[in-house]
Amino acid sequence: MALIDLFDSGDKKKRLSHIKNLVALAASDGEIDKNELDLIFRIGAKVGLTRDELLRIIQRPESISFRAPESFREKIEQLYDMVLIMMIDGEIHENEVALCKLTAIRLGFKHQIIDRMVHDVIDMLAKGLALNIVLSNLEREYA
User: Fold this and answer.
1) Alpha-carbon distance 127 to 125, whole Å?
2) d(CA 107, CA 67)
3) Tens-digit pLDDT string for the chain (143 aa)
4) From CA 79, how far away is CA 69, in angstroms rounded?
């Protein structure tokens, strides 16, 4: 455990972990695209992380340990963000999908529903549905 981890709250550790997962996902196709990086910074700001914290995650991802959220809502919000990262550069790479599914399993989603969940999120995003509608649909279907 890194010394800095001793000073972060459990909630903050989950937020750092989420951004680390997004960075890994963005890098899984061989490079982090500018649009992916911009989106990661927007999501990081939305969850209350500073620019310095985000740069730390990007520069030293190994310093952040995985932390799964407890609530179903937080888990589907993280899945939603992962699918956004996969779609932002206009191409969904096989490595991105594989890592997204692996992370979804680590988040606690049942293996049997992950393919359908990821596909549903992609479809809803492609249709331009608002975040709250996507999350409500996922909660209703999978909770």
Assistant:
1) 5
2) 8
3) 444 444 567 789 999 999 999 999 999 988 899 999 999 999 999 999 999 999 999 999 999 999 999 999 999 999 999 999 999 988 899 999 999 999 999 999 998 999 999 999 999 999 999 999 999 999 999 98
4) 11
For 61, phi then psi, to 5°, come to: -60, -25
CA distances from 133 to 81, 125, 137 (A): 14, 10, 6
The answer to whether the beta carbons of residues 120 and 141 sit under 8 Å apart is yes
Contacts of 23 (CB under 8 A, 6+ apart): 32, 40, 57, 58, 61
What would the pLDDT profile of 63-94 be if each residue is shown by its tens digit?
A: 999 999 999 999 999 999 999 999 998 889 99
CB atoms within 10 A of CB 46: 10
Amino acid found at 99: L
Which tokens hold the place of 50?
């500073």
